[in-house]
Design a protein that fits this description.
391 residues; mainly beta; Immunoglobulin-like; 2 helices; disordered N terminus
């Protein structure tokens, strides 16, 4: 009985306290002021116009212009029109341009209702060719058209072009010559002479032939020449994984100004590597870097030449060094023979070497001639210098 009284009393107290808390909560809320909801557009310049308010309205006749096919080395312009068809002043501000080669002029930046202005866009085509598509942006205070994007496009005729624009071979082999045919053409000149072809690598050969009429027509070309390029086997190094060279072209047209244009044809390709060099002074390019040697002193370094081909064994028939005083010999002592596809090469700068610098384009080399038609020669580049004063 006593326990029952305690439970009933506890329940009554809890109920009274809960009711009191609810009454206090409602009483306090009557004195709380309602806070205004922040405006979604606090800035009046970007706030949407209230119904019936006077606003500016930007109207354009068109946003895009195509110049079609045009000549290079000239400026081409187009004028777009903007009209304020609203009831308030229309404010205009220049924005970004997609290219520095185009210019835009906005003569009037504030238009009263009913007024119009122009946007003059100039495309500069000097040293450009092929298709283009550029844009100019104009910002406005029209809440419905805050950004106007004007676009110009076209195709610039080429004074001098190559088809294909880049010669790309795959699996170049040092045991055979490789050829490619490139059409050098002009979409502007009725006729021109390809009077200069300068290769970046000695040994590359070329022949200038008549251009096929169908290929010229497919490129909308007025004239052209077929350039047959030959990459001799000796220009491909079996120790390289890739090949890269170029031809510098210069064409001249017989007009009153003797106009001329220059172009570059890239020659590249992957090489079926037949050999690799290893040694403590072989760098990532496969170059032997002997560093600087004091005059009157000598230095010697051993290099491992690992051949991909192991059967039949490759024999070195002769060695050619550049410069001549650079010494090289094949070490075939013991079991270090080419029968396992490995050649041990010993390179030496003698003590009587003259003062010199052989780096970069003037670097030295060791050419190992072989009796194997698949690997006729293996060339190791060597960089070093002989100086009289070394700190």
């Amino acid at each position: 009985m006593h326990r029952t009284y305690v439970i009933v009393l506890s329940f009554a107290v809890t109920t009274v306290l809960l009711c009191t808390a609810i009454m206090l909560f409602h009483t306090d809320n009557k004195h709380v002021e309602e806070k205004p909801v922040p405006a979604l557009y606090p800035d009046s310049e970007t706030s949407p116009a209230a119904p019936g308010a006077a606003v500016a309205r930007a109207h354009v006749d068109r946003l895009r212009h195509d110049f079609g096919v045009i000549d290079a080395d000239k400026d081409y312009e187009h004028i777009f029109h903007i009209t304020n068809k609203g009831q308030s002043k229309l404010e205009l501000r220049s924005g970004e341009a997609s290219c520095k080669c185009i210019l835009s002029k906005l003569p009037v930046r504030v238009l009263d209702p009913g007024e119009s202005t122009t946007v003059r866009i100039v495309a500069k085509t000097r040293n450009k060719s092929g298709p283009f598509n550029d844009r100019v942006e104009i910002h406005t205070n029209d809440p419905q058209r805050e950004l106007l994007t004007f676009q110009i496009s076209g195709t610039i005729r080429k004074f001098l072009g190559c088809d294909p624009p880049r010669v790309q071979w795959s699996n170049l082999n040092c045991s055979q010559d490789h050829t490619a045919e490139v059409l050098v053409y002009s979409q502007v000149w009725k006729d021109f002479d390809l009077n200069s072809v300068e290769p970046s690598l000695d040994g590359i050969r070329w022949e200038i032939l008549p251009a096929p009429a169908k290929r010229l027509a497919s490129l909308s070309a007025e004239s052209g020449h077929l350039l047959k390029v030959t990459l001799p086997a000796e220009t491909i190094r079996p120790t390289d994984s890739s090949f890269h060279a170029s031809l510098h072209l210069r064409a001249t047209v017989h007009d009153k100004d003797n106009s001329s244009r220059s172009g570059m044809l890239v020659l590249a390709g992957s090489v079926a590597r037949q050999a690799r060099f290893f040694g403590r002074k072989i760098d990532g390019r496969g170059v032997l870097r002997l560093g600087t040697v004091a005059a009157g002193e000598s230095t010697r370094e051993r290099v491992i030449v690992r051949l991909k081909k192991t059967n039949p064994p490759v024999s070195i028939s002769s060695l050619e060094t550049k410069p001549d005083f650079l010494k090289a010999r094949i070490d075939s002592s013991g079991d270090k023979t080419s029968s396992a596809g490995v050649i041990w090469l010993e390179v030496e700068i003698p003590a009587d070497a003259p003062l010199c610098r052989h780096f970069g384009r003037s670097k030295g080399s060791i050419c190992m001639k072989t009796d194997d038609p698949d690997i006729p020669a293996i060339t190791l580049d060597v960089e070093f210098a002989v100086l009289d004063n070394i700190l």
